[in-house]
Specification:
Elements lengths: L13 H6 L6 H30 L3 E5 L3 E5 L1 H19 L11
Antiparallel strand pairs: 1-2
Length: 102
């Protein structure tokens, strides 16, 4: 928006970038890069969380031969607490807005 260009990012060329005189727009380009790097970091972290929890398995044990109970509650709760803290930190990030619905 700040560069007043209408680029199709799937077809963007180096020539198009050079045509706008990147030195003249250095601050805007740096801001866009900083935003993209921050969003990429959060995206990678969310991917790690999804992958971790998609394969996480709980161990079940018999309780009085009547029902099953989850073994290792302490480990499970510690992992959940850690992820909640990390998600709270992530929410404070200026890059979080893009991922709010996830």
């Amino acid at each position: 928006k700040n560069l007043n260009v209408n680029w199709n990012l799937g077809e963007l060329s180096v020539g198009q970038v050079l045509d706008i005189n990147p030195l003249k727009h250095q601050k805007t380009i740096e801001d866009v890069m900083r935003q993209a790097q921050g969003e990429n970091g959060l995206e990678q972290y969310l991917r790690e969380i999804r992958e971790e929890w998609s394969v996480y398995e709980v161990e079940l044990g018999n309780f009085q031969n009547k029902t099953k109970v989850i073994k290792g509650w302490d480990e499970l709760f510690a992992k959940v607490r850690e992820r909640i803290q990390m998600m709270s930190t992530m929410k404070a990030s200026p890059f979080y807005k893009v991922f709010e619905e996830e």
